[in-house]
Each structure stands twice: as C-alpha cells, then as structure tokens.
Amino acid sequence: MNHLPLIIKREYLTKVKNKSFIVMTFLSPIIMIILISVVAYLSQLNNDKQRTISILDESGLVKDAFQNSEHTKYNVFEDMTLTDAKTIVKETSNYGLLHIGKLDTINFVPTQMEFYSEESPSLSLISDLEGILENKLTDLKLQKAGFDIEKIKTSRATVSIEQESFEGQKTSKIDSVLKLIFGGLAGYLLFMFIIIYGNMIMRSVIEEKTSRIIEVIISSVKPVQLMLGKIIGTSLAGITQFLVWIVLGGVLLIIISTVFGIDVTQMQSPQQQMMQQAMENPEANMQLQDIMTAFYNLPITNLIIAFILFFICGYLLYSSLYAAIGAAVDNETDTQQFLLPVMMPLILAVYIGFFTVIEDPHGTVSTVFSFIPFTSPVVMLMRIPFGVPLWQQLLSLLILIGTFISIVWFAAKIYRVGILMYGKKPSYKELIKWMKY
Amino acid sequence: MSNLLEVNGVSKNYGDFTALNNVSLTVPKGSIYGLLGPNGAGKTTLIRIINQITMPDSGTVFLDGTALNANHITDIGYLPEERGLYKTMKVGEQVLYLAQLKGLSKAEAKIRLKYWFERLEIGDWWNKKIQELSKGMAQKIQFVVTVLHNPKLLIFDEPFSGFDPINANLIKDQILQLRNDGATVIFSTHRMESVEELCDDITLIHKSNKILDGKLVDVKRQFKTNTYEVGITVQEKSSLQQELSQKFQIAPANFRTLGDELKLNIKLSENDKANDLLSFLTSRGDVSHFVELIPSVNDIFIQTVKNN
C-alpha cells in the first residue's frame, strides 16, 4: 500500500504547525532586516561625520589642490608657525594637521611632509591625502619640465576589453561578476538548505525513536517509505519557510527603506564591491544596459534546469544521510561523530566554490570537484553560469544520481535497523554490520 | 482452516547472534495464545517477523492460509512493548493518522474512534496533546490504535504495563470481548497470573528455541506431580504422619485453615489412586482439605527454563 502521500502530509503539517517553526519563520526575517538596517544606519552615521583637516603649506605650492568634499573639509592656514598651528588644531579639536615644509626644490618633497593628529588616522585618509599631493606635485613637475598639462590630460586613453568566446558569445567583466553572483547564490542556497533542513530531518527521526512510536509506525509502513516521506515532507516545509522569508524579507526591506529612509542597498558585500568596480566605466549611462545584456547572456534555461536537478539530487543525497544518522543514534548529542564526515565534503565544496571556481571556473580542481558526487551539487552549480559543456553536466548529474540511489539504499538499511536499536551508541563497525541484517 | 497463524521453521540471525532457531508454532483461530519466555529469548524478534518489520533468514509464516505479504498489514494489530505516540500531536489527529496507515478511510476511522472512546470511557480527549495526558491515558489511546482497524490477529506485548488495576481489568475485559467477537490474540507477558487467567494455548521460547507448547490444560497435565494437599483432624498427628510416610512421599504443607489440622503434601506414585488415599484418610479422622496440586504457569516456566 502506498502511504507516502499520507506520511508527507503529516510530516509537513506537524512541521508547519510547530510553534517554534512558526516563530522562526516570521521572526528571523524581521530580525535579519532589523540587523541589516541597524548596520546600514550605523555605517551611514559614520560616513556623515565631516572631518576638518587643517593644512599648513609653507611651500605655498599645493594648498589649492585640496577641494572640500562630502566627508572632509580642508582648512588652509596662512603665515603661521608649526607650533601655533598645532595648538590651534588641538584647541578647535580639528581632526588633524597636514604640514608641508618649505621646499627648496620640488624634487625632495617626501621628507618635508607630516600629518599630526590626536588618534592615528585611517589608512584610507592617508592614502587620500597622498593621492592629492602626488597628483598636484606630478603636475607641477611636468609643468616645470615644460609639458602642457591640458594636453596630457586629453590624450589619456581608457580601454575596456571586450571578451568573446570562439562560439561568438560575448562576455564582459560585468558578465563575470553576474555569473559569480548567480553561481554563488545557487551554491550557498543549497548549502544552507542542506544544513538547516537536514538537521530538521535528523531531529524528527530521533524524536520518533525517543517517543518509541517508531515500532507502531513501521508495523504499518515500510521504513524506506517513512524515511522518504519524512525527507520530502520536511523539505516542503523548508521550501514554505524559504518562500515566506523571501516575501516577508522583501516587503520589510521596502517598508523600512521607505519609512526610515535608510538606503539598505548601500551596504556593500564583497561581491557588490566587485560589481561596482567592474561597473566603474567612463560611460556611466551604459551600465544598466550592460547589466541587462550580461543577464541575457547568462545560460538562463540551462541554469534553471541544472539548478533544479542538482539541488534536488544534492539535497536528497545529504538529507538521507542525515536521516540515517538520526536513526543510528538515541539522542542529539550522539550525532556529532557521524555529522562531521557528512559536513566535511559539504564545507569543502563551498570553499572550493568560493575560492577556486571564482579564480578559475574551468581549472582542474574546479572540474574534478564538480564530478565528485558529494561536492558536485555545490561546485557544479557555481560553475554552470560560466558555461559548462553539456556532456560534463550530464556526466556529473549521472554520477550524482547513481551515488544518490546507492546512498538512499544505504541510508534506508541503516534506518531500518537503527530505528529499532536502543541503548548504545553504535560504532562505524556496527553500522557496517547492520548492512547485513 | 482452524489455524490463523502458522510459523514454520523460522530462523533469524543478527550477525553471529541467533535470535530465533528453527521455531515453529500454530495459533488456533479464536484463541488467546500466550507467548512466553525470559528476557532476550527471541519473543520480540518473532513478533516483528509476524509484523513484517524484520524478515526471517529462513522459514515461512502463513496468516489465514496465505504466505505473509504486504496486504496482511491491515489484518494485524500490534501493541509493542516499547510503545509511544507523537507527543506533540493531538489525540484525534494522531489516531486518525495511524488508522489511515492501517488502511482505514478517514470517515470510517472517525466513526470507529468515537465508538471506542465511549467503550473505553475515554472522555473529551480529542484535542488534547499526548504530552498532556497521564501515562495510563496514553496507554488507553495506544490500545485503541491497536484495535481500531478491526484486525484478525491482535498482538499484545505486555498490554497491562502502566495501567492501574481498574484500567488493567478494563483492558483485560476488552481483550476477552475481542476474542469473543472473533479475533485471535497473541499475548506476550511476564505476568504469569494473567497468562493463567486469559490464555488457551502457550508457547515457551528460551534462548532462541521453542522448548514447550500446547494447550494450557495439556501443558499443566504434563507437569502435574500427582501431589495432593491434605488437611485432617486427628488425635495422634505424629503416628498418622509416620504411617503415611511409609506408604507415600510426604512433605509438610502450609495453608490456612480454621482448626488445628495435620497439613501435608502427599505425592502419589503412578499406581496409587486418589480415592484410595481419601478413603484411608477418612477412616482416620475428619478430612477438611483434599486438593490436587495443579502446577502454576509460573512454576512450569521456572522449571522448564531452569532445566534447559
């Protein structure tokens, strides 16, 4: 008799009706959004502070190079000794004092400059100041050597290399960044999903064991059916939770950014920074169009199909292992020794994804690990946006499905024996012995 | 077909450990069948094989004339010794779910559930969670789960554990009622007095082997020692005792009486007749007590297990 739908329904409903699940579902996006908003607000607060930096330019060469900006105000002292300037800066509690000594010749500049401040200044501030000075002095030097500065400026060339594969597919830097984001998101999503809901499955198996209901249930249904029902039911609950998170998170984000005027998008993750760097092209009006073309250049159909297939297979592979672990032990504290070897390849996959694939998506390491079944779902998902030949995808999927079937078989065996075993924590040796029961 | 269940030469090994060694038994239709044995004898393994939870390494099991298959799941109701329910699930939902797993439709299960709740004097528990119930109440729910789908074969493993005497009695009456309604019951317990009370047939399993089985009366007959418990009022107790000891094997007995009788256990040899002993005794004094000692299941159990 096929009880699978009934079991799935029960597993789903009990998960969804569970109080802590409901609280988690509705509270975590709120907490996340509040956290993000607070961080965004704080970093905005930090940026809003305008610093005043005093300049004492005894050489008189560079003082007109300092232009007030949003965050920094420059205050130029005239005809003053260094000691007086220092006292004034201290008294007015200005941020710091930049002192440029008298210059006999501009060739010996570097030794003549100091920056005085109460606290040690940030690296970016110093490099900003250095940049301004370097530009000005370079100009001065060039002028002195008889060059026309304006001519030099107009003849400066900007280059942006167009990338094109032999098949005629055009790519650009924005492309690569977009691919990275897509791949990274897919891989990371799978990783999170496995960890959160794998654990949930494991706990639910342990619960059935500790409440001793298991023997009643498996006198009615096959253990494999129960296991699959559990995995599918919990996964559906997980998908529900994810959808609620996305919708709720999106709505909250919009509400908060409109009500409080906090521009959350200003928060910069490393990827966004890369994206921005990539987009810092001279022709700013081209940016949006570039992103759109880059988006259309992505192998969207391939991406979606591959995502669904690899996600399902990868997730089922790991979650059946979680179910087997749950069946093998009596309580959650005993799961550690078995969880570690399951977690290792998963973490390895994410590391390879985020370091090696970004570096070289078609390198040996990336390619090999996108075939090894325990790392392939994550690694392959991250590689696919960069264009992976179909045969590679199919082969990897085939290996994954093969492994998945044997792992489910293996997990079902452990599950079948484990759920009726009470008392002692089994060793790996015993687990192998269970195979023969 | 007079036997509901036939187990033929079933063996089961777990690695090097033999849980069942070539065990055969037949459970007559409409009987209450006691499955006895010390802890770890293999009872639970046998029950699990009948429930198709584990598969035997060799041997066959026939239920109602057909080899055990997936359709038989709905014909069996099993109350395991290690029992429990989903703690956070509501009573009504839970029982309906478990009944549906046994093949009942939801509507049918609801009707029967109401009936059983009344029959077992279970009140307004439908919306309560199991964790809010006392152990005895949860046990009652578990009993309902076992019998709800009207199975031909009921397997109870220690059904009375966790019940107070009143509820234990209630459950006992239900088991008898179910048997009278046509169900066959396999009953595994360590409480020998309930075996005496309920069982028609018994099987004793020890160290993976069946060492004894048959109708309870036959088994008792097999173990009878031809010993009579006697109470007699005489003047000369010691001379009568001496006289008896020359003819029979005697031992002092201990039971409650109202007078000051001579109390003895007298074991007859095979040729002796109880009537002869009685007439001999009545010629010597007033006999107030003359009972054949019937071996209790408890004694049979201990004796058989020790001898093996």
List keywords for this structure.
heterodimer; A: D-Maltodextrin-Binding Protein, domain 2; 2 domains; 6 strands; elongated; B: alpha/beta; Rossmann fold; Alpha-Beta Plaits; six-stranded mixed beta sheet; 10 helices; 14 strands
Structural account:
The complex is a heterodimer of chains A (437) and B (308). In chain A, strand 5 (163-164) and strand 6 form a beta hairpin. Chain A has two domains: 48-148, Periplasmic binding protein-like II (D-Maltodextrin-Binding Protein, domain 2, 3-Layer(aba) Sandwich); 171-434, no CATH class. Chain A has 437 residues and is of the alpha/beta class. The longest helix of chain A is centred in the middle third of the chain and has 38 residues, at 173-210. The two termini of chain A are 24 Å apart. The model of chain A is unreliable at 267-271 and 281-285 (pLDDT under 50). Chain A contains 16 helices and six strands. Chain A has a four-stranded mixed sheet, covered by helices on one side. Chain B is an alpha/beta fold. Chain B has two domains: 3-221, Rossmann fold, CATH 3.40.50; 225-292, Alpha-Beta Plaits, CATH 3.30.70. Chain B has ten helices and 14 strands. Chain B has helices spanning 43-50, 91-101, 106-119, 135-147, 165-180, 192-198, 216-222, 237-247, 274-284, 297-307, and strands at 3-14, 17-28, 32-36, 58-63, 66-67, 76-79, 153-157, 184-188, 201-206, 209-215, 227-233, 249-252, 262-267, 286-292. In chain B, the strands form three sheets. Chain B has a six-stranded mixed sheet with strand order 6-7-8-3-9-10, sandwiched between helices. In chain B, helix 2 packs parallel to helix 4. The mean pLDDT of chain B is 88. Classes of the chains: A alpha/beta (437), B alpha/beta (308). The A-B interface holds A 1, 3, 6-7, 10, 14, 18, 208, 211-213, 215-221, 420, 422, 433, 436-437 and B 14-15, 48, 51-54, 70-71, 73-74, 76, 78, 80, 82-89, 97-98, 100-103, 142, 145.
